Amino acid sequence: MLKFTRWYNYEHKHSQLNFVTPHQRHTSQDKAILAQRKRGMEAAKAANPSRWGKRDVRNCEPVGPTTLNPEKKPVKQEEKQAA
């Protein structure tokens, strides 16, 4: 279990965190990493715009607050019947 926890927190890049590790997020390294990533993608797009078309570069903004198991909104009775 310790091996998995270490991998999950220090190596695994989470999509909900814009592909940084939880450790990088908790130690405030994510802002610098994401800013550098954005500069790199913008430079790649400028160097070869035909590969990008009209697409913007990936979202490289630090995410706001997150929760592991967010509370689900209660489903109204009418919505249950419609499904």
UniProtKB/TrEMBL annotation:
Domain of life: Bacteria
This protein's name: Integrase-like protein
Listed Basic and acidic residues bias regions: 70-83
Residue ranges of the region described as Disordered: 39-83
